Amino acid sequence: MAKPRVHEIAKELGVSSKDLIGKLNELGEYVKGPSSTLEAPVVRKAREAFPAAKTASAAPAPAKPAAAKPAVKPGAPKPGPKPASAPAEPVAEKPAAPAPAASKPGPRPGPKPAQAAEKPAEQAAPAAEKPAAKAAPKPGAPKPNVPLPSDMPRPRPRPAGNNPFSDRSAGPRPRPRPGGNNPFQANRPGPRPGGGGAGGGGGRPGAPGGARPGAPSGTPGRGFGPRPVGGQGGPGGAGGPGRPGGFGGPGGRPAPGGRGRGGGTAGAFGRAGGKPVRGRKSKRAKRAEYEQQQAPAIGGVQIPRGDGSTLIRLRRGATLTDFAEKIDVNPASLVTVLFHLGEMATATQSLDEGTFEALGSELGYVIQIVSPEEEDRELLEDFNIDIEAELAAETDEELEARAPIVTVMGHVDHGKTRLLDSIRKADVISGEAGGITQHIGAYQVHTTHEGNDRAITFIDTPGHEAFTAMRARGAKVTDIAILVVAADDGVMPQTIEALNHAQAANVPIVVAVNKVDKEGANPAKIRQQLTEYNLVAEEYGGDTMFVDVSALKGQGIDSLLEAVLLTADAGLDLRANPNKDARGVAVEAHLDKGRGAVATVLVNSGTLKVGDAIVAGTAYGRVRAMFDEHDNQVSEATPARPVMVIGLTSVPRAGDTFLVADDDRTARQIAEKREAAERAAQLAKRRKRISLEDFNKALEEGKVDTLNLIIKGDVSGAVEALEDALLQIDVGDEVDLRIIHRGVGAVTQNDVNLATVDNAIIIGFNVRPAERVQELADREGVDMRFYSVIYRALEDVEASLKGMLKPEFEEKQVGGAEIMEIFRSSKFGNIAGSLVRTGVIRRNAKAKVVRNGVVIGEPTIETLRRFKDDATEVRDGYECGIGLGKFNDIQVGDIIETFEMVEIPRS
Ligand SMILES: Nc1nc2c(ncn2[C@@H]2O[C@H](COP(=O)(O)OP(=O)(O)OP(=O)(O)O)[C@@H](O)[C@H]2O)c(=O)[nH]1
After folding, report:
1. What is the pLDDT of residue 50?
2. Transmembrane region positions (predicted)?
3. Which atom of ligand 1 is nearest to the CA of 412?
4. Using 50, 70 and 90 to split pLDDT, how confident is the model at 608?
5. Is it the case that residue 824 has pLDDT exceeding 60?
6. pLDDT for position 256
């Protein structure tokens, strides 16, 4: 490769190509054109032919090309020739250039060196001599491609290639890349070198490829540090350099050169080497930065963020683990983030909606807590039960008329209970059946309407509380509400509450104006009052039916039932499919001593049969027997037919929906799943929400207080109502009211044990403690309270909570003085000349002026004197003058008592 071309030699000699060609032709060498290559002997001839020119131009000429070329493709072909022309110097300097070559030494070098080497080498040698001598003392270098800046006399070793040492030195050098065509490799082994004995051959290789590489290495020692840089890879080249070592001075250097090997090089080059490293780092850093942007860290953890509207659905009582699963992160990360938001929670703790919302908005997610109904629907879907779809799919042919279901509401004492009794008695069938003997929570009566026998089902739990509690559970039981208003009392607060609840539930209302038998009853006034609430009587042009009744005397009951039926027929589609598995609602339930859990259910659709596997809320079982309100055993219940069911393993709650499952196992699984969901939701509700900040503070100040309650009642409706009412008590933020357990039946040992563990108070409603339970409670110091009126229980709990909020003070009498004489002073008002009878009278104390046992005023002791001197206190047995400020209503004989407010220690 490195055969020089005519034009190159011409340039070197400072003559035109044409002249050179002419000359050579003259000398008998046939040369075709400027691009023709020349063999070494021919070149020699040419140089001999133009001796003068050569000396003149040689130096400069080579410099350029050399520099240029190597730079570009160092290892490349060019080098060969160039070097020839460009003597030694360049070599030294250029090493730098070669370095770069290193990076691509592989290919180039390989071949080139081999052949190129020979010639150039030869030629170079001679050529080099001169320059070398001048510039570099150390001539070593006939290095071809390297141009040489002159001022850098570096001893230029020889090109690795033809340096005899090269091989050897190389040997030791760590051989960088194994590369097949890596010159070094070839060299090393010896073949090349060996063959090259010629130095030339072997060297070459070094030169080109190796050179590059080598160069740097050697260089380093040299202090070329910087240059090499470009060289980069050169390292490998290192081999070359090895050479230098050979050459003495540099010797030491080589070592570094040795370093040739890749990374090592860097070190050898100092700064240069560092660069690449730095580059890599920054790349990594950049990536990290990018990732940071993607997922900002909160509290040191990175969490993929939502875009602010990413919807995440969670069930009630979900935990951080549930949330983490949805966004695919480690739950611990969420714990950390929440912690930084000021809340502490474990990954498996049920959290309330507010906490999830705060966490979600922080992370860019919109958290949607699935409603209980929806959750239950999803739960049932897992069992292939979709009640809504089932209902929607029913055809007219499948639907049959059913009885309307009615709830009686109204203000206290307006006659709800009495009305329900009257209706029961009015039942046309009762006579034959022996009357309604069972209170099962609902009953059905029959009446003749327009010649037909019609049934109406009444929920036997008056009041909107139960109605609302059921609704809250998603049960739409009531079709029509009878609003009872006493004609002698008028519309009262609960009347309005009741009608609001009914209207909110979209339940039509029939107004029963009761107690019309009473004197002073004014039914018209009721009609008029209710128009304000959108209940306009038909006779006034509205669409609400008002019926005057006397629950006491049983008057107007038939009309009321008729009004109910008319209202139902007018606006309600009361039909259901009786030919399928039953679905409905539990309206009442309790634990019966003999029969276990009993529940009164109302079938909404389908037919409930004895033997059915049933699940009601979290209770399940198999229908062992059913009874109606007449205490008759029945084998099946059709829509709107209330029956008392026996066979459940636990007591459901009023308002729990029930359904018949395919088999016992399914019923149990549904119940268990509901139970789990319920527990989670309860946990979330109960969780004390307190910020981290407040938490510490509250702890320090001993302000963390929770009133734990256990509620037991005779029927689930009462327990529900009591629980709801209790939870509505506004107790502020400092105290938490928790109902840790509720149930139907007597207070048991288990209840007391639970209360002992959680420091709870037991509230019993219409129940008594079971045997020996009172004893246990006394022993354990558990407070049990029993009520038969919900209101009283509420009052007590509220008072107790307030007590926890505010310390209680009581007056403690400090002293007492009797007024013996009255001095009138224009400046101080009346002064009571008194004798202290008990204790001590102090200035500024609060006082009570008592006359004949009656407190007539509570002034403050503003002035207190012993004779003419002010005193701060006067003890019993002494006389003093007491000024009560503006309170001048005193008489001789009055007693002035002073007292302090003393905090009553809580037991
Ligand atoms: N004179 C008269 N008294 C009635 C009538 N209806 C009810 N009462 C009386 O009113 C009082 C209250 O009746 P209840 O049926 O207990 O009233 P309630 O609305 O069920 O009361 P709570 O259960 O406390 O909400 C009783 O003393 C009844 O005897 C009526 O039509 N005429």
Report:
1. 78
2. none
3. 25
4. very high
5. yes
6. 37
pLDDT at residue 286, rounded to an integer: 62
Q: Report whether residue 97 contacts ligand 1, using a CB cutoff of 6 Å.
A: no
**Residue 461: CB within 6 Å of ligand 1?**
no
Mean pLDDT for 40-68 is: 57
Return the best residue to mutate from 407, 411, 413, 516 for the ligand 1 pocket (most ligand atoms within 8 A of CB): 413
Q: Which of 743, 736, 773 shows the shortest CA–CA distance to 758?
A: 736
Provide the annotated binding site: 410-417, 460-464, 514-517
Q: Looking at 549-656, which runs of residues are DSSP E strands?
A: 575-576, 583-592, 596-605, 608-609, 613-616, 619-627, 633-634, 636-637, 642-648
Looking at the predicted structure, is the pLDDT value of residue 832 above 70?
yes
DSSP-derived secondary structure for 72-130: HSTTSTTTTHHHHHS-HHHHHHGGGTHHHHHHSTTTTTTHHHHHHHHHHHHHHHHHHHH
Q: Whose CA is nearest to atom 29 of ligand 1?
A: 552
Query: What secondary structure letter does DSSP report for 174?
Result: P
Query: What single letter denotes the amino acid at residue 670?
Result: I
Q: Can you say how many angstroms the Cα of residue 361 is from the centroid of all Cα atoms in its chain?
A: 9
Is the distance from the beta carbon of residue 390 to the nearest atom of ligand 1 less than 6 Å?
A: no
Question: Which atom belonging to ligand 1 lies closest to the Cα atom of 555?
Answer: 31
Q: What is the pTM of this model?
A: 0.47
User: For a pocket test of ligand 1, which of 552, 553, 555 has the largest count of ligand atoms closer than 8 A to its C-beta?
Assistant: 552
pLDDT digits (tens, 9 = 90+) for 151-162: 444 444 444 333
* pLDDT surpasses 60 at 248: no
Q: Is the CB of 418 under 6 A from ligand 1?
A: yes
Binding positions for GTP: 410-417, 460-464, 514-517
597-618 average pLDDT score: 92
Ligand 1 centroid, distance to 489 Cα (angstroms): 12
Task: Spell out the residues 6+ positions from residue 383 whose beta carbon is closer than 8 angstroms to its own.
Answer: 661, 666, 669, 670
207, 117 contact by CB (below 8 A): yes
Mean local confidence (pLDDT), 571-583: 89
CA distances, 326 to each of 303, 320, 368, 684, 892 (Å): 12, 10, 12, 19, 83
Determine how many CB atoms are found less than 10 A away from the CB of residue 446. Answer: 16
Give the residue, by CA position, lying nearest to ligand 1 atom 32.
515
Separation of CA 197 and ligand 1 centre (Å): 129
CB of 514 sitting under 6 A from ligand 1: yes
Query: pLDDT value at position 516?
Result: 93
Greater model confidence, 166 or 809 = 809
Confidence bin at 735 (pLDDT 50/70/90): low
What is the number of the ligand 1 atom nearest to the C-alpha of 484? 19
Q: What is the mean pLDDT of the chain?
A: 70
Report which of 577, 617, 604 is spatially closest to residue 373, judged by C-alpha positions.
Answer: 617
Task: Please write the tens of the pLDDT for every residue from 773-787.
Answer: 887 777 776 778 888
Structure tokens at 411: 């203000």
Give residue 882's pLDDT. 93
What ipTM goes with this model? 0.97
Question: In sequence order, what are the beta bridge partners of 873?
Answer: 842
C-alpha of residue 317 to centroid of ligand 1, in Å: 43
CA 561 to ligand 1 centroid distance, Å:
19
Identify the residue with better confidence: 769 or 130.
769
Mean pLDDT of 269-276: 38
Rounded Cα distance between 258 and 620, Å, is 85
Backbone angles phi, psi at 740, to 5 degrees: -85, -15
Q: Which residues, 6 or more positions from 328, have their beta carbon under 8 angstroms from its beta carbon?
A: 304
Which residue's alpha carbon is nearest to atom 9 within ligand 1? 415
A 10 A CB-CB count for 440 gives: 24
The whole-number pLDDT of residue 55 equals: 44
Nearest CA to ligand 1 atom 27: 413
| Cα angle 84, 89, 93; round to 5 | 115
Residue 515 in contact with ligand 1 by CB distance below 6 A = yes
Ligand 1 centre and the CA of 766: distance in Å? 21
